[in-house]
Design a protein that fits this description.
- The structure holds two protein chains of two kinds.
- Chain A is built from 22 helices and 30 strands.
- In chain A, a hairpin with a 5-residue loop joins β21 and β22.
- Chain B folds into three domains: about 45 residues, Uridine Diphospho-n-acetylenolpyruvylglucosamine Reductase, domain 2, CATH 3.30.43; about 120 residues, Uridine Diphospho-n-acetylenolpyruvylglucosamine Reductase, domain 3; about 110 residues, Enolase-like, domain 1, CATH 3.30.390.
- Classes of the chains: A alpha+beta, B alpha+beta.
- At the A-B interface, α5, α10 and α22 of A face α12 of B.
- The structure holds flavin-adenine dinucleotide.
- Flavin-adenine dinucleotide binds next to β2, α6, α7, α8 and β10 of chain B.
Chain lengths: ~800, ~300
């Protein structure tokens, strides 16, 4: 590898110019001549049998091209039998946690039964979206309503109606983890406490909703699909499988994508159906999701109820933890145990907790299907664990910081084997650095000692300040693989292509930096492209804080290989040993003699097959190198967070003043990009802590279907985020990096809730549910003042 | 989220708008800043056959300060009020309160007339109307009429304006220069409609007694409401912490706000009392009361 000068630098983003000048290209910006639009008729009820569908009036409407229901596509479009590639659990995971996973197929359009509000039932194709929506109002569907399940605890109760006949007790998936002599620890415990924690259902809320455009070329028999997705390869696989095509006949392009956050990892019915309709109609077909649809039709996340018991000593040392939790997976469970097992695998986080038993159950209800969202099970885990630590400290009358310190894993315990496998089947072995040292830095940075000695009243006697802490650890850079290509085009320009598509993560900038160092050129010389299955044959996608580790490594290796190839051909042309050559701009010259040089253009020409080829003996033609990185397992990024809040004790209003974070995501490729990722993550964490909740009424009607009711934090609600970077290099990839995409999202809920508890300390309130609304805070204050136990226990 | 088909007319004068209203009446809807009506159209919650755009009617776009009365044309943008130097000099009641509405982008488009005609129970403008003794000048095919504020707000999103009428102007009586005012609210986020908001205007006489008092609450009923009981507690009295507390209790006592997903009625009633107290303290302080008994 050439000398490293670009990795680690704060380089301005290469991708910003088109985005800030309004010349970005999103799915909705692409409109081939003759495009028709789709509107979906979606179930207005949470659970019903479809008795009849009348489409005559809609079909007869002017401007309507076609109206399609499930019988119209039967035999031509297969149902989803597995989602993404998550159903597969590696043998070591099977043996360790004994997962039970029930099949739970999903039709692209509901055939006889609808199971959630928003489920697609009819597709209306028209000359414009306006007309399609007019026609949708004319479709007449007769629903025979069925009993509705909205609460996972009610859904698993004996006698509850079954959502899918083949899933007994409505438990679609479950597993058990059992580590250490748990029962003995509890039997001998000095103290025990039990809790019930609730993390609500939230929406990932990318600013760009989903959208699909499909164009079929009947002559070439090729289908091109543009989709606002995080996983173009998975979309390609599902379309090919479900429409009976070869993957090679399907090209999926994710153009500019305005955020994903997890929900766009799933492959959705709309993607399959729009592709099918473009083939069926011989016209480009487009569907752009509107926000109203997005809040019912795009996968939702979190939604866990935990029943927890903890055993601890008088000094706050936690000796054991038992948890049984339910994940409300909605009407189908596209991601199987992904989020639930992430919760189990990360729950102890950076704390020792030697005895640990946890059972997770994914429970079916009449809600939109549950999918991963930034953090994917870890925010839930962290909320439970960091609240438990805080409550243990306060019930013992100890300083929470002291109790955190007592339970944190030390540097002497690293690498730390947690005794259970990761989701990829490999043992969980933390490769974190000196966590207690990071915690000390956090305490100093946030001014904790000063805070402890000061009065908490900051204004008029009714505003009180508090500081709370939380931790996180995250397995990042999950496989199975990711690939990259590095090549010289016919002009000698350097092109780097990756399989994983960006949607805000700065792939172009960061991977140009990586490639530049691998090649020994400047990042400006690199043209980077991703998000198109035609570029790299195999790929996975961007999610799970995985791209820097997986694609980054692939880019580094492919780039290094291209460098070797360039130097070998240059050596042949210059009659010099490759080791004596160096790059300068677009040329390669002999060290110390710039007159003896060849251009990359000449090198590309010399590598092309034909009479002008000049290659070292035995070398194949071409200037195109690729590499697929298959990581051994994940790397463990970690961090500690403090939140500083002001609480108005008369109204319950919380003002998050500041978030301070000490995090370790290994070596940083571009600190500015990392800071942006964390800041955005914190914003979403603040949302989960204080604002966001998808509300369903007892009949399964979603009540939060606009941004007036589903409250996202705006720039006005997102506090200043102070970040301290610690760089413990990973030895699980050659770059030494760990993932950071989800880092900021995980810890804010417990940090903020703990800070509110701290602000109200003399009142001894406890909270166990999110979001922490002003009303919940005020209720707790009033209850505590009137002598009752404050808050939620 | 696309509206059904409608016909669109751009009125170029009030007379033209009235003519169109006369022709289409019930089937028509006026389009001012569009910040409320466009979402309603897109959600297909309203489906007028005709949309009459009044944005080009320059004669509806004026602010005239004349002694104690201020006349504001229906088409004046909220942002214009917020930035009006003359109004700010006259006492920042209007400019400050209007700054609490939504975000800058919304205030740039949203109009005074639109906000009053829409009559959102959590909107600031209806409360300002109550506090400032508004008179509404309304025009329609049957001619012009003036409606006082206590007859204007009829219920949830309902006013005295008939479907074929247009609000031309609102006349407000600004507080006298020595008056104090405040508008305080709790919203889930910055720029959201308030869960509860309380506005107060106070004038003290030469003996420091409360000579004039007006309190209005938003977010607690189907329309903005005056806190008559609380005003009675205060009127003519010497301000004191105790007095303010009993006024705040009186303001909250009569309320029966409903629950929604953002807050329960109980919470709203509780903070109505807290916010009334805070609004009164600020307004009284601005009116020259020196609070000596701060806890
Ligand atoms: C995100 C968001 C946040 C907001 N937050 C707040 C807030 O905190 N507080 C607040 O008060 N408002 C808030 N609003 C509403 C905003 O103030 C609106 O602009 C206002 O309610 C309507 O004004 P408009 O000019 O946009 O009217 P339009 O939307 O054009 O019209 C609203 C209604 O009034 C009728 N109308 C308009 N002009 C006239 C007229 N001259 N005569 C008769 N009828 C007329 C229309 O036909 C329609 O029925 C918010 C809006 C948004 C989108």
């Amino acid at each position: 590898m050439a000398t490293e000068v670009h990795v680690g630098r704060r380089m301005a983003r290469k991708e910003d110019r088109p985005l800030v000048t309004g010349t970005g290209r999103f799915v909705a910006d692409i409109r081939p001549v003759g495009t028709v639009d789709v509107a979906f008729g979606r179930s207005p009820v949470a659970h019903a049998r479809i008795e009849a569908i009348g489409t005559e009036a809609a079909t007869a409407m002017d401007g309507v091209v076609g109206v399609y229901t499930a019988p119209d596509i039967q035999g031509q479009v297969q149902p989803f039998t597995l989602f993404v590639d998550q159903e597969h659990t590696p043998p070591s995971l099977d043996q360790s946690i004994h997962p039970v996973i029930r099949p739970c197929d999903m039709d692209v359009l509901a055939l006889t039964r609808v199971r959630y509000v928003g489920q697609p039932v009819v597709a209306i194709v028209a000359e414009s979206r306006y007309l399609a929506e007019d026609a949708a109002e004319l479709v007449d569907i007769d629903y025979e309503e069925l009993p509705v399940l909205t609460d996972p605890e009610a859904a698993i109760a004996p006698g509850a109606p079954l959502l899918h006949e083949q899933v007994p007790g409505n438990v679609q998936a479950s597993f058990d983890v059992d580590l250490g002599a748990v029962d003995a620890v509890f039997a001998e415990a000095e103290h025990t406490a039990s809790f019930r924690f609730l993390v609500p259902r939230v929406a990932g809320s990318p600013i760009e909703t989903r959208g699909v455009l499909a164009v079929h070329d009947p002559v070439q028999e090729e289908l091109t699909v543009w989709s606002s997705t995080q996983t173009p390869y998975m979309v390609r696989t599902r379309i090919a499988e479900m429409l009976g095509l070869a993957e090679q006949q399907v090209r999926v392009i994710a153009p500019d994508v305005g955020g994903g956050f997890g929900p766009k990892v799933q492959v959705y019915p709309e993607e399959i159906l729009v592709a099918h309709l473009s083939m069926r109609l011989g016209r480009p077909v487009c569907w752009i999701e509107d926000r109203n649809e997005h809040l019912v039709a795009t996968g939702q996340s979190r939604d866990q109820v935990h029943t927890v018991e903890v055993a601890y000593r008088g000094d706050g040392t936690i000796t054991g933890l038992r948890d049984r939790f339910l994940l409300d997976c909605g009407a189908f469970n596209p991601f199987s145990i992904t989020c639930a097992y992430n919760t189990a695998a990360h729950l102890r986080g950076l704390y020792r907790v030697p005895a640990y038993r946890i059972r997770g159950e994914c429970v079916l209800t009449n809600k939109t299907p549950n999918v991963p969202y930034r953090g994917a099970g870890r925010p839930e885990a962290t909320f439970v664990m960091d609240r438990v630590v805080d409550v243990v400290a306060r019930r013992l009358g100890l300083d929470p910081a002291e109790v955190i310190g007592r339970n944190l894993l030390t540097v002497a315990e690293m690498p730390c084997d947690r005794g259970m496998p990761y989701r990829d089947g490999a043992p969980i072995v933390y490769d974190c650095g000196d966590v207690p040292a990071s915690f000390d830095r956090l305490l100093r940075q946030v001014g904790y000692a000063e805070h402890r000695s000061a009065t908490r009243e900051v204004q008029d006697g009714h505003v009180r300040r508090g500081i709370g802490f939380a931790t996180y650890v995250e397995g990042t850079g999950k496989g199975p693989h990711e690939g990259a290509r590095a090549l010289l085009d016919s002009r000698g320009d350097i092109i780097v292509l990756a399989g994983c598509t960006p949607h805000g993560q700065s792939h172009e900038t960061a991977f140009s930096q990586v490639a530049a160092d691998a090649l020994g050129v400047s990042p400006e010389q690199i043209t980077f492209r991703a998000g198109d299955t035609a570029l790299v044959p195999y790929g996975v996608g961007t999610f799970a804080s995985r791209s820097a580790v997986t694609a980054g490594t692939a880019v580094a290796v492919a780039g290094g290989r291209l460098r070797q190839r360039i130097l070998a051909v240059a050596g042949e042309l210059l009659e010099a040993a490759p080791d004596d050559l160096e790059f300068q701009d677009s040329t390669v010259h002999v060290q110390g003699d710039v007159t003896s040089s060849v251009t990359l253009h000449q090198i590309a020409a010399a590598a092309a097959p034909g009479p002008a080829a000049r290659l070292p003996a035995g070398m194949d033609h071409g200037m195109d190198e690729s590499y697929y990185f298959v990581p051994p397992t994940v790397t463990f990024a970690s961090g500690l967070m403090a939140a500083v809040v002001d609480v108005d004790t008369e109204t319950g209003v919380i003002d998050v003043r500041k978030i301070v974070l000490v995090h370790d995501s290994g070596r940083l490729i571009n600190p500015m990009v990392v800071e942006g990722q964390i800041h955005g993550g914190v914003a979403q964490g603040v949302g989960t802590a204080l604002y966001e909740r998808l509300v369903y009424d007892d009949t399964g009607q979603p009540l939060t279907t606009t941004f007036m009711d589903y409250l996202l934090p705006t720039s006005m609600e997102v506090p200043k985020v102070e970040q301290i970077h610690v760089e413990t290099r990973s030895d699980r990839n050659p770059l030494g990096v760990k993932g950071v995409g989800e880092a900021g999202t995980i810890s804010p809920p417990p940090a903020i809730v703990n800070a509110v508890v701290d602000a109200l300390a003399p009142l001894s309130v406890e909270f166990s549910e999110l979001p922490l609304t002003p009303e919940v805070v005020l209720d707790a204050v009033l209850a505590a003042r009137s002598g009752r136990t404050g808050g939620q226990r | 989220m696309k509206p059904p088909r409608f016909r669109y007319f751009a009125a170029d004068s009030t007379a033209h708008a009235v003519e169109l209203l006369g022709e289409y009446g019930d089937e028509a809807k006026l389009l001012a800043g569009g910040q409320s009506v466009v979402p309603l159209l897109n959600f297909r919650l309203v489906a007028p056959a005709v949309l009459i755009d009044i944005n080009r009617i320059t004669e509806l776009d004026h602010v005239r300060v004349d002694g104690i009365t201020t006349r504001v044309g229906a088409l004046v943008r909220q942002r214009t009020i917020e930035r009006d130097q003359e109004l700010r000099r006259r006492g920042p009641m209007l400019t400050e309160t209007v700054g609490l509405i939504g975000h800058v982008a919304i205030r740039n488009r949203g109009t005074v007339g639109g906000a009053l005609a829409h009559a959102d129970p959590a909107g600031e403008w209806p409360a300002l109307g109550l506090l400032l003794g508004a008179c509404f000048r309304i025009v329609g095919p049957r001619g012009r009429r003036t409606v006082p504020v206590d007859e204007f707000f009829r219920g949830f999103l309902t006013t005295a304006i008939e479907p074929d009428e247009l609000l031309e102007e609102v006349e407000l009586r600004l507080p006298s220069p020595g008056a104090g005012h405040a508008f305080v609210e709790v919203a889930r986020r910055h720029g959201d409609f308030a869960l509860v908001g309380v506005g107060a205007v106070v004038e003290l006489d030469s003996r420091c007694r409360i000579a004039h008092i007006a309190i209005a609450l938003i977010g607690v009923a189907s329309t903005a409401v005056r806190a008559g009981d609380a005003e009675r507690v205060l009127r003519g009295e010497l301000p004191s912490t105790e007095l303010v507390k009993s006024a705040a209790e009186a303001a909250a006592a009569g309320l029966d706000p409903v629950d929604d997903i953002h807050a329960s009625g109980t919470y709203r009633r509780r903070i109505a009392g807290v916010l009334t107290r805070r609004a009164l303290y600020t307004a009284l302080a601005r009116a020259g009361w020196e609070r000596r008994d701060v806890a």
